[in-house]
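Why show two proteins at once? Because comparison is the fastest way to build intuition. When a single record is shown, students tend to memorize it. When two are placed side by side, the eye starts asking what differs. So, the first record is below.
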Amino acid sequence: MADPMLDAILNAVPDPMLHINADGVIMGANPAARASLGDWIVGRSYAAALRQPALLARIDDVLSGADSADARYERSEQAGVTEYKVRITALPVERTRAILLHFTDITHLREAEEIRRDFVANVSHELRTPLTAMMGFIETLRGPARNDPAAQARFLTIMETEGHRMNRLVSDLLSLSRVESEERMRPSDALNLEDVLRATLASLRPRAEDTGNDLVLEIDASAEGRMGLIGERDQLMQVFLNLTENAIKYGGPQKPVTLRISRAEGRGLLRGEVLQVDVTDKGEGIDSQHLPRLTERFYRVDTHRSREMGGTGLGLAIVKHIVNRHRGRLKITSEKGVGSTFSVMLPAA
């Protein structure tokens, strides 16, 4: 028979909880447990309801006399596998042996560990490649190329390139760490977006002239004289430097890169008026299958080409976190053979 007071206590707990009597029957389940495991479990044997040997063994231990035990429970759903830590505790009931099960969702901890492991593996791989190349060149310079000035000059040039690549990687890793740590801290400085973009284009114009790219700033009538926003200048400069550099690199030489400012009404979670900057190139475009993953760390559409151009695979991840900090949104559209547009939408002041 269910205990009304115990049921009231279970219902007050937000995590899934089960009450199992001495006969191994599930006598009570709070709403969270019913939502996760199903209404059908009440009145059933715990062995039939839970069905995972390691968890069943720990429940048996507590029913047999142990005060408490811990176990893991995994539940497969359409969205993926949810992992729980289960605390099994004996209830002080006269002449019987009832127990409570408390389920704590630890899926996020597992996912965080997987992200950390993948991150370390990616960083190790990114550093190993240039380091291996440099060690090989050093060995060659000490041996076969010891008296070959032409080979020495060639190898030293390559070593310098690889050293710069590692330096960029470390710099981007530090930037990513910093912007992630500040992501929940809202910026507070009043800025003019046109000033930020003009400073961005001024710093990139010498490079664009070397490759024959024409940098164009367009201001839509909707944004004329209304380009104020709250933000951090250096971080927004970093966003538009990154996007414009990418447009120059991947758009190809002798092609225009356009930055267009407009003002519009926000949609979805981004409510109110927004300032939108579209960074558009006339390059080869990006296949649609790659678009959802472009802001992942170390994700590249063309790994070899990206590395040749000095890319670290972290630039768009940094952009995403900075835009998130500014409570904005990043949208990527592309058409093969036509070009790509990276749109940054930021709340207008």
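Second record. Ask yourself what differs from the first in the token line.
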Amino acid sequence: MSESIISLKNVSKCFKRYAKPVDRLKELLLPGKSHADVFWALQDINLEIFKGETLGVVGRNGAGKSTLLQLITKTLTPTTGEIGVHGRISALLELGSGFNPEFTGRQNVFFNGRILGLTRAEIEAKFDEITAFANIGDFIDQPVKTYSSGMFVRLAFAVAVNTNPDILIVDEALAVGDIFFQQKCFDRLRQMKEAGVTLLFVSHDSSAVCKLCHRAILIEHGRIVLDALPRQVVDLYQAKFLQQQDVEPELTEINVSPSFSTEDGASSTISLTSEAVIIQFVRFFDEDDQEIYSITSDSPLQLSIGILFREEIDDPHVGFIIRTRMGEVIFESNTFCMGRSMGTVSAGTLLNVRFRFKVPLIPQDYTITTGVSSGGVGEHQFERSLAVNHDTAVLKVLRNQDTILWNGVVNLNPTVTFSKQSSLENQPFSSKL
């Protein structure tokens, strides 16, 4: 992936905001004086996206993600800087963009295809494939304004992925629609990724970003604050979110430190720290209390987390996350969600918390994230985040030679029974799985 297909150099985008409509007129008639407030949606963006790369774009609402995509698709022009795009772009941006609500679905397919540079003959050749993917039946000949949001995104996505783009941009659109269509969309995205199409993927779904993308950027207040592996970008995004949600955000600090090398290159770990507690250690033990560094799949495990309390904390809670190497969450919970309380912990206490569970996971390496919070107020929500350490330990799961052959993420260890009958007539066949 050495050939640049999208290049942004010192790109900024400024919008003018007027308190009253008449202020815009005053500025036109009296150009020497500004009557607008200036808002910089993007500032000093330098970004190279390479052919065949899948780039995740992460950030809170209003951070500048959509503006960035609109600049790349040339629906907006930059205030300063240069943008180079080499290849045909197909974009699925905000719901409703690109389709005329008065046109039928069929008319919009041809209209959008022509905008993307396809001839009428090329669109006709792909029309059956588009309608089959969208699967909206006779609604293809109804005005788009009569469509539900799910039907709309089905057709919009079908057009976007079936017009032979060099670059595909998807902005949160897959949050609409049922689970079956979402799975269908992600399967197609993976196929396009394998075929060498460059993908720009905007989503608040951290697992999807980690699974799909080679690389990710975090945008904050119109600036790129991190360009790194998806796992690291998601970790920083979530750490900033926890800090902002804290009742005392000034008491926490986000740290980025070099950690380890991966197949994709050097990585770093993100931690959220405070003066109140320190996570001293994370260790693994078998059921006989012997410390271990690897475990056979389906075997029992004890996860031991040691926390030094430097301040007295009322109602602290401890949790952990198991993730794949790519950052996909396999399991997450904490003592608050488990309905367990340890009361008040005084300063100077070294607290050892042990979680006991089986590990029915596919053989590979998993990372452990640990955290300490206080003041539970909802599901996975706390008043204070005292410490969060990502990738503090690696759990190596080995193959269990005594179990069934299986694939997936979790071994359900199914059992099976059969029953046979002499005749099916008037006797429904039954089986128990």
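One difference worth noting in the second protein: The domain at 4-228 is CATH 3.40.50.300 (Rossmann fold).
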